[in-house]
Write a structure and sequence with these properties.
Layout lengths: L1 E3 L6 E4 L5 H20 L2 H17 L1 H12 L3 H26 L2 E6 L2 E9 L2 E5 L5 H14 L3 E5 L5 H14 L6 E3 L4 H8 L5 E5 L2 H11 L6 E4 L4 E5 L6 H13 L9 E7 L3 H13 L20 H15 L3 E4 L14 E4 L16 E7 L2 H9 L6 E5 L3 H8 L6 E4 L11 E2 L5 E2 L1 E2 L1 H6 L2 E9 L1
């Protein structure tokens, strides 16, 4: 398999893909070793994962370079991602003992009732390319902490990073037979779906997630899917600092070239502040630099996948044909690399795919609304349900709107952020299940009830 640098289109490396024989062999090793890992004291598993986090920090520069080389994000954003992964590891390891240890529920003379959190067994983690450290840590860290063995399949677009993750985990002390990496594209993913894992955890598109869910459903094992989004954001008329709101929301839309499941994908602005907000938004985006992702100060690197260039262009062209106006950008950048101009569209409406289907790129539609009711109705008009944001000086006003929206996360005066302390979960086409928080730690366990009488 050829690993391509999306910023230069040069081949970085060629690596061997897995096949049916190697996948079966790796699965057999995981199966045979999981029991011993489960019997390893929780405190020892915690120490090993803490050491993994320390190794990421120590090696942040070479790891960031590898990540940037294969996904095209600016070097500083790669550093940010690894630091973010370390922060999540810290929270998960600090709270693992509390949420994975046995719980006594009833203790009285002659009777003890308790819950024991047993690992699922051997799980498959089919991961994503846009944030391989972050979405990976969400799954394999709590899975390992809970005593599971893990088959980790990085995206074919971030395979080198997947191998770096494996290397650091094993340096930290995770037994080689407890964490295995499956390298390859769809064919290897299909092999995993035909292997009898005890659980499947997927991060990626709705289409692929639906396919995986349907394929493994007959086995009746846990299956969690963190899928895409078409995340809405509303700017109310009572905001006081329009410039800073425009800057923060622009970052929410365009960070990592908009290649984030929780990126802001559609913006609704109250008519009273629309013109000023739009002016500040455009000025902010124009101030950001596009260029080689290894060059310091660059905000827009290349997209990770070549095919996305044509998809975005089609979305924009369709919107323009239906009456949208391009205020900025609108097309791929000529030359080497998968670059696309940051694009701002106005005069948009919900007949356009750019306001309904996930873009996953540096494209945003901004729509004027008359009041909170119109904003809420438009925000709800989606098959997705990952996050929703409201900017307002009034928390009660914001929460009233957010309560109406069927999304896993609500933001007031912020957007495009994830915290390890609270669940990360989607609704509708954005998936199901939860990672992070106590819910994410326990997602990789089977609770067993004990009724003990003497």
């Amino acid at each position: 398999m050829k690993i391509i640098n999306p910023a230069t289109e040069e081949i970085i490396k060629e690596i061997a893909e897995d096949n049916e024989q190697s996948v079966n062999q790796k699965f057999a090793e995981l199966k045979s070793s999981q029991g011993a890992w489960q019997k390893t004291q929780l405190q020892n598993r915690i120490k090993i994962i803490q050491q993994f986090g320390a190794l990421l920090k120590t090696n942040i520069e070479p790891l960031a370079l590898v990540l940037t080389s294969e996904v095209g994000k600016p070097l500083q954003q790669s550093r940010n991602e690894i630091n973010g992964a370390c922060a999540r590891i810290q929270w998960l390891t600090e709270h693992a003992n509390n949420y994975l240890s046995d719980e006594t529920m009833v203790q009285q003379p002659g009777l003890n009732e308790k819950i024991v959190y047993e690992p699922l067994g051997v799980i498959a983690n089919i991961s994503a390319w846009n944030y391989p450290y972050l979405v990976g840590v969400n799954v394999f860290v709590p899975a390992l902490l809970a005593g599971n063995a893990v088959m980790y399949k990085p995206s074919e677009y971030s395979s080198l990073t997947g191998l770096e993750i494996e290397k650091r985990l094993k340096e930290a002390g995770v037994p080689s037979s407890v964490f295995q990496v499956a390298i390859g594209a769809r064919t290897v993913g299909e092999l995993l779906l035909n292997t009898p894992f005890d659980g499947y955890f997927f991060t990626g598109s709705y289409k692929t997630g639906k396919y995986i869910y349907e394929k493994v459903a007959p086995r009746m094992v846990p299956c969690q899917c963190e899928l895409g989004g078409k995340d809405p954001l509303y700017v109310a008329d009572d905001i006081t600092d329009i410039k800073s709101v425009a800057a923060g929301t622009a970052d929410g839309a365009f960070y990592n070239n908009g290649q984030s499941c929780c990126a802001v994908e559609r913006i609704y602005v109250h008519e009273k502040v629309y013109d000023q907000y739009l002016d500040e938004f455009v000025k902010e985006v124009k101030s950001w630099k596009m260029g080689a992702p290894t060059e310091e100060g660059v905000y827009f690197g290349s997209l990770s996948r070549k095919e996305q260039l044509n998809f975005l262009k089609q979305q924009i062209d369709e919107a323009v044909q239906k009456g949208a106006k391009v205020l900025l950008g609108g097309k791929p950048v000529l030359g080497k690399g998968f670059y696309f101009e940051p694009t701002i569209l106005v005069n948009v409406n919900h007949s356009m795919s750019v306001m309904r289907e996930e873009s996953f790129g540096p494209v945003i539609g901004i729509m004027k609304v008359k009041n909170d009711e119109e904003a809420a109705a438009l925000m709800k008009d989606s098959g997705y349900g990952l996050t929703a944001s409201v900017y307002s000086s009034n928390q009660q006003r914001a929460e009233k709107i957010l309560q109406q929206i069927n999304a896993g996360t609500g933001y007031w005066n912020c957007c495009d952020r994830v915290s390890a302390a609270v669940p990360w979960s989607g609704r509708n086409h954005s998936g199901f299940g939860a990672t992070l928080s106590h819910a994410g730690l326990r997602a990789f366990t089977k609770p067993k009830a004990y009724h003990l009488k003497d």
